Amino acid sequence: MALAYTRALLKLSGEALLGERSYGIDPEVARRIAAEAAEAHGDGIQIAIVVGGGNIFRGLSAAAGGMDRATADYVGMLATVMNGLALQDALEQAGAPTRVMSAIAMNEICEPYIRRRAVRHLEKGRIVVLVAGTGNPYFTTDTAATLRAVEIGAGVILKATRVDGVYSADPEQEPDAHRYSRIGYTEVLSNRLQALDATAVSLAMDNRMPIVVFDMTVRGNITRALRGEAIGTLINDEVPA
């Protein structure tokens, strides 16, 4: 089949791994995500995955509760490592060779993130799971995903969420909110739409990196997004809403 992207970065929130749980990792959800990613990988798409840690620990929430922000962010980075290892296990059970690479050195658990090595893993047909954010506090995993996508030369960022795209307002609060099929970076920033944080959108805009926001809770959507099917909302250069 003709591939829309030869290399894509899939951004998963930690909450994506919750399933029906209130905390931690639902193994069944991890297996479903892995199976869908492995299916697209079988088509020949090079896949990198950035995973968050909000199902285990949220740095911003802890900082709001009085914890030092830098410390809270480091704890959150460690949570992403746990998610990445769980996802690696699920991917390899699905038959996809996988490497976990961390922005914080922990050699007994996973490889350090080195850009050239990450690209080489992708070229050799391995799915690369990128954890520990950027390795620095005060940066979200959305920003880490955008940075890594630019570094490895991905063709797109696929942001898997629990909603089916970018809306003009919170659809849970405003039922009449409009869902965009396509929107420009500047409009996302100027209207303070909560699809990604502003740093991530600005970095994507500077590097002309398209972003697709889609609903990962619909079975098969991760595979569809990786194959380049038109789902969710495409954020790219300025276009009519």
Which terms summarize this structure?
241 residues, alpha/beta, Carbamate kinase, 9-stranded mixed beta sheet, two-stranded antiparallel ribbon, 8 helices, 11 strands
How would you describe this structure to a colleague?
By secondary structure, the protein is an alpha/beta fold. The protein is 37% helix and 19% strand. The protein has a single domain (7-236), classed as Carbamate kinase (3-Layer(aba) Sandwich). The chain has 8 helices and 11 strands. The strands form 2 sheets. A 9-stranded mixed beta sheet has the order 4-3-5-2-1-6-10-11-9, with helices on both faces. Strands 7-8 form a two-stranded antiparallel ribbon. Helix 1 (27-42) links the parallel strand 1 and strand 2 (46-51). The mean pLDDT is 93.
- Helical coverage, percent range: 25-40%
CATH class: Alpha Beta
**Low-pLDDT runs:** none
How many DSSP helices?
A: 8
CATH-defined architecture: 3-Layer(aba) Sandwich
Assign the CATH superfamily.
Acetylglutamate kinase-like
